[in-house]
Amino acid sequence: MTDTAQPAASTRRILAASLIGTAVEFYDFYIYATAASLVFGKLFFPASSASAQLMSAYATFALAFFARPLGAMFFGHFGDRLGRKSTLVASLLLMGGSTVAIAILPTYEMAGWLAPLLLCVLRFGQGFGLGGEWGGAALLAVENAPPGWRARFGMFPQLGAPVGFIAANGLFLLLGLLLTQEQFIAWGWRIPFALSVVLVGLGLWIRLRLTETPAFAKALEEAPPAKAPLGELLIRHPLATLAGTFAVVACFAIFYLTTAFALGYGTTQLGYSRETFLGVQLGAIGFMAVGIILAGYWSDMTTPRRVLMAGCVATVAAGFVLAPMMGSGSILLIWGFLSIGLFLMGLVYGPLGAFLPGLFPARVRYTGASMAFNVGGILGGGLTPIIAKALSDQGGLGPVGLYLSGAAAVSLIALAFVRRQVEV
After folding, report:
1. How many domains does the chain have?
2. Domain of residue 141, CATH code
3. What's the CA gap between 319 and 335, in Å, rounded?
4. How far is CA 158 from the centre of its chain?
5. Residues 59/22/406/319 CA torsion (nearest 10 deg)
6. What membrane topology is given (predicted)?
7. Directed axis angle between helix 8-35 and helix 114-142, to 10°?
8. Of 55, 254, 263, nearest to 172 (Cα)?
9. CB 151 within 8 A of CB 304
């Protein structure tokens, strides 16, 4: 590191806060995705058909993606006006509180339509909180990075994703091994949601010890904060916002195809047990972490944009092997595709922590990075499990693979229009 680097203890605290906080947020998000694939359809919706119940559960899963841009606007506004630290604490509290409350929800059998209504409200709260989480965590890392280390610092919030996924799915796997199916459906699924209170406490303890980022402090010295960050963003930086939004479509599409959709498909259409398929996914998620770390180092050697474009090209190709590998029924080939997909996810996700903040000046950076990331999440991930389920029901896995290739092509085109980035 250079002389401008933070002191060692401060640097460790900053990177831990950006990683652990995001891991907590994504743990909350992933346990919902797993529960939606496994039990929410049966517990919170009337019995009509197993497929209709699963589609309803996926619809509640999608709801949070539409709440995320609203959270991005809300938290981005205060993050650009008041600072990164307090906003990050508030977003963590909102999502954590919503997750813990899901643990005590009544089921449809207990409360009728009140049960899915409350589930949707809390799911909205999860999405609203996460809308302010990622952008703040990325800015916390990259705005404290010394010269030449921006992408490697920016990869730490991204590493929270596999950490949260491993914690979430590992816990579900453990519960599946220790509990009977009846116990799991009756009360076992509630445990991961209740345990979120411990993780939120850890995240708050770390974040409350932080100071404000140098970039935000410098921006305040140069000019008063933007009165309406969203308005300034859309008026002065519309092309950067559009490019950033579509650049993230690929990472969301590939992730939710290899996690939420694959889990539902593997346990219903392919007939694998929940424990078996969760174990396969856990065996593949490490490749995502490898991809993120590789992307961080590679981005600092070249540029985040180049790494993202390379990952998108490879993801277009991966779409064509989805059907033969996932549809083979072979657990080894399924693991192989999930490993490839999640590694590529690392390549198209890892550089975003440095890429998106670099599209916007500091005075609207929280709003800009958060809006691009979360609106892109709607386009790339919000409806992906539902669309993929409908495509596979009608035409098998071939159209699902084409859907993945198309999503990656959209991001590749958007990245081609990005020519210049600001200094973070």
Report:
1. 1
2. 1.20.1250.20
3. 15
4. 9
5. -100
6. Multi-pass membrane protein
7. 160
8. 263
9. yes
Separation in Å, CA 339 to CA 133, 151, 225, 281: 27, 23, 44, 8
Residue 55 lies in a domain: yes
SS3 content of the chain, % helix, strand, coil (to 5): 85, 0, 15
Tens-place pLDDT, residues 6-64: 455 488 888 888 888 778 877 887 888 778 877 888 888 887 767 777 778 878 878 88
Give 16's contacts (C-beta < 8 A, 6+ positions apart): 206
Quick one: which of 71, 213, 107 has its CA closest to 154? 213
Q: Which residues contact 281 (CB under 8 A, 6 or more apart)?
A: 169, 258, 259, 262, 263, 338
Q: If residue 424 lies in a helix (H) or strand (E), which one and from where to where? A: none
Is 3 a member of any domain?
A: no
- Looking at 302-330, list the stretches that DSSP marks H as alpha helix, in order from N- to C-terminal side: 304-326
Residues 123/32, Cβ–Cβ less than 8 Å:
yes
Residue 191 is assigned to a structural domain of this protein? yes
Q: What's the pTM?
A: 0.86
DSSP codes of every residue in 268-292: HTS---HHHHHHHHHHHHHHHHHHH
Instruction: Establish if 19 belongs to a structural domain.
Output: yes
